[in-house]
Amino acid sequence: MNMRTLLKHKKWLLLILAVGLTGLQACKTDAFKPDGQATVVGKWYLSQHNLKLVKNGEQIGETVRTNYSKDDFIQFFEDGTGYQSVKVSSATPSLIIFHYTLKDKLITMYINGSPGVEETITKLTETEFAIHYESQIPDPYTEGAFNTEIDDYAFVR
User: Fold this and answer.
1) Contacts of 100 (CB under 8 A, 6+ apart)
2) I need a surface site. Which of 33, 116, 128, 156 has the fewest CB within 10 A?
3) Structure confidence by residue, pLDDT tens digits, 16-44
4) pTM score, two decimals?
5) How far apart are CA 124 and CA 34, in angstroms?
């Protein structure tokens, strides 16, 4: 074989190799990847509640609770309804039925015709869900004054 024939064959060999590798890449099966569209729909078990109390811009108290049972959960349904189970004593848990709306990172929950409690979703994955809520509560020591209560809830599936 002369040099010209050898170069001609190398060109074809490189072309066949490139097409073959491209074909193999196209046939490759990717590992399963969730679409990233995690949803609140489903049952979420309460795992942590961090409550902070702020007076005049200064934190005056904090409580972190993590000792929850399988009876402490929230269930969201696709139709915008749900219920929350809270075990307040050794007795049977209480159930709270609610409606909710979801817009971007804001979830608003309506209980018994209430005007709605707006909470911010701070984390939402397939297995973790967290919400943040701030409210004004009366100061027990100063009439007409209010403190800020900051609630951060963490849930797992």
Assistant:
1) 76, 80, 81, 82, 107, 108, 109, 110
2) 33
3) 333 343 333 333 333 223 346 799 999 99
4) 0.72
5) 13
